[in-house]
Amino acid sequence: MRVVFRFDRMYAWGGPISIVASRIRRTALFVILVLLSSPIGAFAQTDSAQAKKPSPQAAADSSALRIWVGFSWLAMDAFNQLLQSQQNNPVRRAFNVSAEMDTLPVPIPGLKTVTVKIPFGAELINASSKTDHIANGASATVNWSIPVLGLYVSPRITFDRSHFQINVRPVGLGYYRLGEGLGSLGNAELTVSDRPGSLSLSAATLGYVGIVGIEFPVSKASLLVEGGYRSLQFSDVVLTPKNGFSPGAGGGVSQVGSLPQTLDYSGVIVRIGLGVHLF
Fold it and tell me: What distance separates the 2 farthest-apart alpha carbons in the chain?
């Protein structure tokens, strides 16, 4: 029996050499595609990660609702002398709560890393003095509650850095009110537990504030740390007795009409806050 190899048929129909060459070409093409696709995929992943990472510039360009809590130290020296003359506790500091809404940024030609906004907001300054007196078997509690509510506008200059922002408020202007009408936030008044009624305090004035802070963008929010100084004085405080209140020893006020001392809320402010970027 004779076996005959027909090499012409093997080449014509894709014999072994053609099959190997075809596989080599397909393997080479696959390797090239993998090499080309790897940097593209890596770039796409990096670009996606950068897109998800919060940008300080994007945070500066968006509008946000900001809420703060903090403390302020008060320059109540004159008023505290009145309180201490009646053995009442002085007013040293106040608890602050504020909220504000951003406006759209004001563009500054040629400065891409600096943003200017003019936010407006509301602020509560909650100060008080509470003292328990015990004498001759009797007791009484003297409570000075003197909260202040204000509405303000405070231009803010933002300097963008790689991972945070520096916010500077050179001067903010506010209208502040001391007195009734604060609802559940509390009225400005003096109460003494052993006598009926209350002594109402009322006044209104303008105040100024300067603040510097740092903002850390986190996703669609920001963490805020700020400090500054507030200038706020009520020099014409009107005293009005209500519901049969009688001034006298113990409360620190011997007559009604106007408070002879200035209520001075000026002092250093320290606060932390959260900003939520809306759009």
Answer: 139
